[in-house]
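Re: that backbone. Tokens:
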């Protein structure tokens, strides 16, 4: 199984959709809590869904099971919560939601997990991918 991740910030639309198209994936799974902000530019839900289909032949899926809570996200973004604690809390949230029992490997095989962060180092999409890979096994994670 292969699971991709991508963030849209610090990428041009050309680069972003090029990476997605080159991945060979047929579905983008949006793991953002808030996906309609004007600050998201081309990655706002309605625009993203349209561009994915038109430019990449991909479908769009918003998966709130993989999104952080609003409280945790706000605390981390404001600096009130350190990354290390945010990561611990987020992984506990995934465990409590039992995402590995609700989501199936077949529906995420070759899917791309999306969030806003430019790189995966301090991003919940990486944590989600690693969590699922640890439980499901035999999963290659590719950060686009």
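Recovered sequence:
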């Amino acid at each position: 199984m292969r699971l991709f991740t991508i963030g849209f910030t610090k990428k041009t639309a050309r680069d972003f959709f090029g990476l997605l198209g080159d991945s060979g994936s047929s579905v983008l799974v949006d793991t953002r809590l808030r996906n309609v902000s004007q600050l998201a530019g081309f990655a706002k839900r309605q625009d993203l869904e349209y561009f994915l289909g038109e430019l990449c032949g991909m479908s769009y899926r918003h998966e709130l099971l993989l999104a952080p809570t609003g409280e945790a996200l706000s605390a981390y973004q404001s600096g009130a919560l350190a990354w290390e604690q945010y990561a611990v809390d987020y992984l506990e949230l995934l465990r409590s939601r039992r995402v590995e029992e609700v989501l199936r490997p077949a529906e995420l095989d070759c899917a791309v997990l999306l969030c806003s962060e430019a790189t995966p180092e301090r991003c919940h999409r990486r944590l989600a991918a690693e969590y699922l890979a640890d439980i499901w096994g035999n999963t290659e994670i590719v950060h686009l």
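The chain has a mean pLDDT of 95. The longest strand covers residues 2-7.
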